[in-house]
Recover the amino acids of this structure.
């Protein structure tokens, strides 16, 4: 599964995989990322993940032929790094009070709210990368029945901790921001802390589970927040 290489600038190269988003693709990406970090230690400024891409940001320019030669001799065919086994349990209060779009979304899907909540919370979601906002997790694994196009008119203000659905993805807004996804609940768990190293609790490849809680539990955890449990 060798990626396509594109040079965007003297300091920016992008690797793109022509494949469906999956655990297998993520394995290739993370293995590839690890090899890049080891090979270009002195030249590397940053590596940016996407669902099907990996951007190589350099601190000093490199000739394209060097990257191309490295790519030809470093295909991720063969041994791949295993995906992490950690599963993070994030408590979510699914309710109209904490998810303003829950009722309308359930109605649009011809299902009861409880059915939507059960469907959203029964599975596991794989964390692929962070983006959009510091601490915003891009997760794969939303059931097909919950696919919902993003809002044509985004909300100006989305509360921190809002759990939402946008197209084929689900995610959690780590801070107050505008947003165009459908809000179905909210977590009291802090998702991003710039005072911690690292500032996020989960790493790419780890999994997320959403655990439904009551509004009373949500209020209590808001007063006394703590990191999510890991199993």
């Amino acid at each position: 599964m060798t990626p396509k290489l594109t040079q965007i600038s003297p300091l920016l190269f992008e690797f793109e995989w022509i494949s469906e988003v999956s655990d297998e693709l993520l394995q290739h990406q993370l293995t590839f990322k690890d090899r890049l970090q080891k090979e270009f230690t002195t030249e590397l400024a940053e590596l940016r993940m996407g669902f099907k891409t990996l951007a190589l940001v350099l601190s000093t320019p490199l000739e394209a032929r060097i990257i191309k030669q490295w790519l030809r001799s470093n295909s991720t065919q063969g041994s791949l790094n295993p995906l992490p086994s950690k599963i993070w349990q994030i408590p979510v209060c699914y309710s109209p009070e904490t998810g303003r779009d829950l009722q309308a979304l359930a109605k649009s899907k011809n299902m009861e709210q409880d059915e939507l909540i059960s469907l959203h919370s029964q599975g596991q979601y794989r964390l692929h990368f962070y983006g959009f906002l510091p601490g915003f997790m891009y997760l794969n694994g939303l059931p097909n029945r919950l696919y919902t196009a993003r809002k044509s008119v985004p909300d100006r203000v989305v509360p921190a901790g809002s759990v939402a659905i946008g197209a084929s993805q689900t995610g959690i807004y780590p801070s107050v921001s505008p947003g165009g996804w459908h809000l179905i609940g909210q977590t009291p768990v802090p998702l991003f802390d710039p005072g911690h190293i690292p500032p996020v609790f989960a790493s790419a490849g780890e999994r997320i589970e959403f655990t439904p809680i009551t509004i009373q539990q949500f209020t209590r955890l808001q007063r006394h927040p703590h990191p999510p449990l890991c199993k």
